[in-house]
Write a structure and sequence with these properties.
- 2 copies of one chain form a homodimer.
- Helices cover 29% and strands 16% of the residues of chain A.
- Chain A has 312 residues and is of the alpha/beta class.
- Chain A has 2 domains: 2-87 and 280-297, 3-Layer(aba) Sandwich (Rossmann fold); 88-272, 3-Layer(aba) Sandwich (Rossmann fold), CATH 3.40.50.
- In chain A, the strands form 2 sheets. Chain A has a 7-stranded parallel β-sheet with strand order 8-7-6-9-10-11-12. In chain A, strands 2-1-3-4-5 form a 5-stranded parallel β-sheet, covered by helices on one side.
- In chain A, helix 1 (11-22) crosses helix 8.
- The first copy, chain A, is elongated, with a radius of gyration of 22 Å.
- The A-B interface holds A 89, 92-93, 95-97, 99-100, 103-104, 106-107, 109, 112-113, 115-116, 119, 121-126, 128-130, 149, 152-154, 256-258, 260, 265, 271-276, 279 and B 89, 92-93, 95-97, 99-100, 103-104, 106-107, 109, 112-113, 115-116, 119, 121-126, 128-130, 149, 152-154, 256-258, 260, 265, 271-276, 279.
């Protein structure tokens, strides 16, 4: 039996699609009548404190989100394997966000926006993509896809990850020891890391001060569509104010929705979107997890299982 | 002998580079002492009225610009072949502009900018690239390169040109008879046409009214980095005002610099840059034309010669 436990999204819609994909395998929602001991899989988004109570025969926790940082903090998380959502559609949308924001800053959008507001005709030629170095933090599925898109456009792409991840055409850096060298050649920093105790707060003043200066007119740029927990917003405000950063595109925040009194709203070179870079797609999610449940019921191993020790 | 006749750019810098590339072949500037009858090639940018006087043995006019619309209107243009500049670096920079502006509008930049100004957290998911149709007008070197970049990002790409130009993965339309069908499936219209009597003013109210509606939240979008003569600015102001267009990115204008009293400056969804989408590169230009002069002096035919009857 598959139990759906989804908050803040259309649980009924997901249930209907899962039933169509898995029938005759039973699919239930929280308010349906069922015996918790029959539940072998639970599909969760923002699970309540009692979400896992009585699920004594659970085989796997299936996560609607690609990031499991919040789920791993659940006080009653059972020992069953956790499966992450690896979603091609979400991956492509995340790359859409990355490309749009990287190219906007490469083309010096802030400069021309200020000129337009002043009715000023100030000819200045932005650098070519091949003259602009994009540094991607995190080379999982999302980082690798973004790198491929940026390479196709001619950008110089470099990456930094926990362990060495060789990707053709990308200069790869790994671990704490190579972080400064990675930053020192980066004009536009793109964060696609998972949120873990090691990466929390990594987007801070010290990091910003090590980015390459002189490559991009106005200063280096931060693009963060990963998690608000990666960033120190007080440090971003300071860096945008003193020129350590030339601009920032932020889709995530320490507190969401971003509070109305946050100073970020009013900073001209700070581009805010309300956590909409990429969303998990119902069709893709049902197709992905229905295949995983069928395979596991047929005796095959689970895929994309979270390693709790590393946190993703 | 090569004569340089360049206004508004660094003629001395070009001359130095041409001399280094062509020596011992003679290279002169306007103020140098030379016999006009010795001039076999003239390299021009914004030539004065007397630019071609006395050049009785001219073999070719070499244009610094990729677009020759202004040159073709020169009152004393000789009969010699005109060679267009085909510049890989300029092509790549033009694609940079196109990608930055297409992705900005696909990601609904105007909507989120307005939300930020109002400190409003309004979650709304932009369409994926694959759900967004970009229609490219003009499939010369620039159009084809932009199409390849957009295809690599997953966009639906369609094109319209004077004659059928088949490009893999692109839905091709040609001629006046297929213009409406091309527009009717286009969410973001990108103009990369040459400016000719046939294409002057083609970006007008009638064209805008035929673009697809309902594809892109806020309405269809115009992106014009080609020539100001392609656009009717009064029609753009009207279309942005009444919602026929959701937004526009303009790098060129009917009169440049754009006059301080133009209403375009103040329209929130109109993104103005001062004719900086792409510039011809000195190194690339010298390398390209030095090779053409050497080959022609060795008896080989000229390449990229303008067809005066079609105007490019």
């Amino acid at each position: 039996m598959l139990l759906l436990h989804l908050s803040d999204v259309d649980e009924a819609g997901w249930a209907e699609k899962f039933r169509a994909a898995l029938a005759p395998y039973p699919v239930v929602r929280r308010d349906d009548a069922y015996d918790p001991k029959d539940v072998r899989y639970i599909f969760v988004w923002k699970p309540k404190a009692d979400a896992f109570d009585g699920l004594d025969n659970l085989k796997a926790v299936l996560s609607l989100g690609a990031g499991v940082d919040a789920l791993l903090k659940h006080p009653n998380l059972p020992d069953a394997p956790i499966v992450r959502f690896v979603d091609y559609d979400l991956t492509r949308r995340m790359s859409d966000y990355v490309v749009a924001n990287v190219t906007m800053h490469q083309r010096l959008y802030s400069r021309f926006q200020a000129d337009q507001a002043a009715r000023r005709w100030g000819q200045f030629y932005p650098p070519a993509a091949r003259q602009t170095a994009v540094g991607i933090m995190g080379m999982g599925v999302l980082g690798q896809d973004a790198a491929q898109c940026l390479l196709a456009l001619g950008f110089e792409v470099r990456c930094w990850s926990r362990t060495q991840k060789p990707v053709q055409g990308v200069e790869a850096f790994a671990g704490a020891g190579e972080f400064d060298a990675f930053l020192g050649g980066t004009d536009i920093l793109v964060n696609l890391l998972p949120l873990t105790p090691d990466t929390a707060g990594i987007l801070n003043s010290d990091t910003f001060s090590k980015l390459r200066r002189g490559g991009l007119d106005g200063g280096p740029v931060l693009v963060n569509p990963a998690r608000g927990g990666h960033q120190r917003e007080a440090d971003i405000v300071k860096a945008l104010g003193d020129g350590t950063l030339g601009a920032a595109s932020l889709d995530v925040f320490e507190v969401e929705p971003l509070p109305a009194d946050s100073p970020l709203w009013d900073i001209a070179n700070c581009y805010i979107t309300p956590h909409i870079a990429a969303i998990s797609n119902e069709e893709a999610g049902v197709s992905y997890y229905a295949a995983i449940i069928k395979a596991h019921e047929a005796g095959k191993p689970l895929i994309n299982v979270v390693d709790r020790s590393r946190g993703y």
